[in-house]
Design goal:
- The chain has helices at 12-37, 40-43, 91-106, 127-135, 148-157, 201-212; strands at residues 60-63, 68-70, 79-84, 114-119, 142-145, 162-166, 174-178, 182-185, 191-195.
- Helix 3 (91-106) crosses helix 6.
- The strands form two sheets. The chain has a seven-stranded mixed sheet.
- The chain has one domain: Glutaredoxin (3-Layer(aba) Sandwich), CATH 3.40.30.
- The longest helix has 26 residues, at 12-37.
- The chain has 213 residues and is α+β, with helices and mostly antiparallel strands.
- The chain is built from six helices and nine strands; from the N terminus they run ααβββαβαβαββββα.
Length: 213
């Protein structure tokens, strides 16, 4: 009787396993090709986890003088945006003071880039309040506030978390929880980078040089 073991087809179960493995390899190859070939602008773009939209966009809030302040007033100017509130005990004053110091170290004057302080506490932070708070740092800072709806929209556009938190020991019985990241925009109003609280000054200065160029 002839020997046919060398020519027999593999069992059906083994064939299914091989097909699955080949399919997984093909998917992995396609994913790798997409990562390597996608445009650099997509690779470097920070997006909102909650909304899936690009960070930034047109806005209109209220300035310290009580007048509307529009993003169009920043046309052609690089700027840094920080969301906080005037009753903040630590992160907000520390961050604004740091931005003021970094701008001074940049050595290009106070017009190197604009600093925007956007209040996430419009119930307490009136235009006058944000104006006086901005003056504490002895450098030009644009203090902005607005209605609750305007602030919520602005925070959503910029992918910044913010929430009112009950606190019996805080003024008025509450405090504000918010993201502490600084957002950097170039002269075209395009989002280009962030400065995190734990990030070193050399790296932060490099980013600021890029938007101030």
């Amino acid at each position: 009787m002839p020997d046919t073991t060398s020519t027999s087809a593999p069992p059906a179960g083994l064939r299914r396993v091989r097909l699955i493995v080949w399919a997984l390899v093909a998917v992995a190859a396609l994913a790798l090709a997409w990562l390597l070939l996608r445009p650099a602008s997509q690779a470097g773009q920070l997006q909102s986890v909650s909304t899936g939209v690009a960070v930034g966009g047109p806005f209109t809030l209220t300035g310290a003088d009580g007048r509307p302040f529009s993003s169009t007033q920043l046309a052609g100017k690089p700027y840094a945006v920080f969301f906080g509130f005037t009753h903040c005990p630590d992160v907000c004053p520390t961050t604004l003071a740091r931005l003021a110091g970094l701008r001074q170290r940049l050595g290009q004057g106070e017009d190197a880039f604009q600093i925007l302080f956007v209040s996430v506490d419009p119930e307490r932070d009136t235009p006058e309040a944000v104006g006086k708070y901005a003056q504490l740092f002895n450098t030009p800072i644009i203090g902005l506030t607005g209605s609750r709806a305007q602030i919520d929209q602005m925070a959503k556009q910029h992918a910044i978390y913010q929430a009112k938190v009950p606190d019996a020991e805080a003024p008025d019985g509450y405090t504000m929880d918010h993201g502490a990241t600084v957002l950097l925009f170039d002269r075209a109003g395009k989002f280009v980078a962030t400065i995190a609280p734990e990030e070193g000054d050399p790296a932060a200065l490099d980013k600021l040089k890029r938007i101030a160029a």
